[in-house]
Specification:
This protein is mainly alpha-helical. The chain has eight helices and no strands. Helix 2 packs parallel to helix 7 and helix 3 packs parallel to helix 6. The longest helix is centred in the N-terminal third of the chain and has 37 residues. It is globular, with a radius of gyration of 19 Å. The relative contact order is 0.13.
């Protein structure tokens, strides 16, 4: 896959690989942020439709939906960097950082999970993923690509900003266009 292509390209032409990696990263992150932004807008209505007619507990837990989306987003934005790290043979050099991520995740998830339940566990994952994502971006741009972090920081900000705008707007006014049942939900997904 992509890792093998990056590895072969890295050995043959590092400068060309840098350019191609940045293109791949930009495309991957743009698609990832779009998918998770759509999920953010649609998840609450999906849960409402899916659990319609269930008796018993309330399955409407917007805070859990938001945390699951953030965990998924944070897990996916590291993929290009993690792929390049493996492709150029730096996995062992970053292994201790992966262990640190696991320790942060387990520690905070246990601590916060005890106090806040599932929300606390997910927040522990958010904290550990944020640590590792930042670490991967810095490692890739500093130790592998030998480029400044300003460029990637600006790119990330340009992708995070619309996600945050949609998040705040959906909390304040909502984006869901009222439709009937699954057909309305699907039409909203297409918009």
């Amino acid at each position: 896959g992509v890792q093998a292509l990056l590895g072969v390209s890295w050995v043959k032409d590092k400068e060309n690989t840098k350019v191609n990696f940045i293109r791949f990263e930009v495309l991957y992150l743009a698609v990832t942020f779009c998918v998770y932004t759509v999920a953010l807008v649609l998840v609450d209505k999906f849960v409402e439709l899916y659990t319609d007619g269930f008796d018993g507990s309330s399955y409407q837990r917007p805070e859990l939906a938001l945390l699951f989306i953030i965990v998924g987003l944070l897990d996916n934005i590291r993929v290009p960097g993690r792929t390049l790290i493996s492709a150029v043979g730096h996995y062992k050099l970053t292994k201790s950082r992966t262990v640190a991520e696991a320790i942060i995740n387990i520690g905070f998830s246990l601590l916060l999970g005890y106090a806040y339940g599932m929300s606390g566990v997910l927040f522990g994952a958010v904290l550990s993923f944020m640590y590792r994502d930042i670490d991967i971006f810095f490692y890739v741009y500093h130790n592998v690509l030998n480029l400044g972090f300003k460029r990637v920081g600006f790119r990330l900000l340009s992708l995070v900003a619309p996600f945050l705008i949609v998040l705040v707007a959906s909390m304040e006014v909502g984006f869901y266009i009222d439709g009937s049942g699954w057909i309305g939900w699907f039409l909203n997904a297409c918009l």
